[in-house]
Amino acid sequence: MIVNTFSYTMNIFFKILIVTIIYCFFADNIYAKNNLLSYQSEYSINLFESGETRIPGKTYVDKASGNLYVDWINNCNNSWISNQRMVTRFVNSHGVGTLSEINYSVNESTDGQKMDFVLEIKENAELIDRTIGKAEKNDELTVNLRDKKTITFSNDVIFPHKFLEKIIDNFQSQKKMIIGNVYEGTIPDKYFKISVFFTDEIVRESKKIIPKGVINKFKKIRMAYYKDNIQTPIFEQTVHLNEQGIASFFKYDYPDYSLLLNLEKIDLTSLSCE
Q1: Helix then strand then coil, % of the chain, to nearest 5
Q2: At what angle do helices 160-169 and 2-25 cross, to 10 degrees?
Q3: In the structure, what pLDDT confidence band is assigned to residue 1 with cuts at 50, 70 and 90?
Q4: Is 167 helix (H, G, I), strand (E, B) or coil?
Q5: What's the Cα-to-Cα distance from 128 to each of 6, 8, 137, 164, rounded to whole Å?
Q6: If we measure between CA atoms, which residue out of 257, 256, 258 comes closest to residue 238?
Q7: Where are the beta strands (DSSP E) in 138-207?
Q8: Which helix (H) or strand (E) holds 239?
Q9: Contact at 8 Å (CB) between 151 and 131?
Q10: What is the pLDDT of residues 23-50, one digit of tens each?
C-alpha cells in the first residue's frame, strides 16, 4: 500500500531531520557557547521540483507540503530543552495522500553526558509509534528504553551537541570534512555515521525573516548519513548554518525525491534563571 510507503519514507525523513535539528542548535564549546540563542521557529516544507524524466509504472511523490515547528530553550546552562512538531502532507502520482504528524522532545545536559527523549509518530491521526528513552555516557554509551530494553554502544559514539562542537569549531579551521558517530535517539537501537563537508559559500537571508540578534551570515555545508556500516549514504542534505547554530535552510535528498525546508519565522525567547 502506498500509505505504508509514505509512512516509511516520512518516518526516516523526520528521524534524520531531528538529527540535523539537534546538531544545528546544540553546542558547548568556548567559541559557540556564548552565541547560542533560545528561540521559537517555524519552517515551511515543500517538494523540490527536479524535472527528471519519470519511469512508467513507478510511483512518485507528486506533492509534499507542511510545516516544522521548533522550540529550543537554554535551561539555565544545565541543559537544552526542545519540543519539535512536524506536520507534512504527501500526495503520490496516483493521487493517494497521507498526513503525517511527528512530535519529538529532548532534554540534553550541556556537558553532553545525558539525554532524555520522547518520539511520537502519527499517520492520518492514528498513533503509529511512541519511543521513550534515557541515554547516558560513561565507559560506554548506554540507552535505557521505557520497555526495559537496554542498548549499549562503544564510547566513540557521541551525543549530538558534541558533534556540533566539531562542526562549529571547523567554521574557523581549514578542514574541508569531518566524520563522527552520533546517537540521537530517534532510531533507538542505531547510531549514524555522519560526514560533513564544508564549503566557502556564504548565504544571507531576507532581513524581514532574520530578527535583531541573529547573525545573518549562513555557511553552506553538506552532510551524508550512513547506517549499519553500509557504504552508500541513506540520505544527504544541504544546510545553511550560522555560527549561533541556527539553520535558515535545509535540502533533503532521497533516492526518489527531495524536500526543501525554509525558515519562515524565528522569535528569540529567554528563560528566567533567578
Answers
A1: 15, 50, 35
A2: 60
A3: very low
A4: helix
A5: 13, 11, 29, 31
A6: 258
A7: 141-145, 150-153, 157-158, 177-182, 192-203
A8: strand 235-241
A9: no
A10: 555 544 434 445 677 889 999 999 998 8
| Domain boundaries, given as residue ranges, for the chain | 2-268
107 or 164, higher pLDDT = 107
Give SS3 for 22: helix
Query: What gap in Å lies between CA 113 and CA 79, rounded to an integer?
Result: 10
Asked which of 8-12, 43-47, 109-113, 267-271 is least confident by mean pLDDT, the reply is 8-12
The span from the CA of 178 to the CA of 223, in Å, is 10
Residue 213: Cβ-neighbour burial (10 angstroms; 0-12, 13-18, 19+):
exposed
Q: What is the mean pLDDT of residues 154-169?
A: 83
pTM, two decimals, is: 0.84
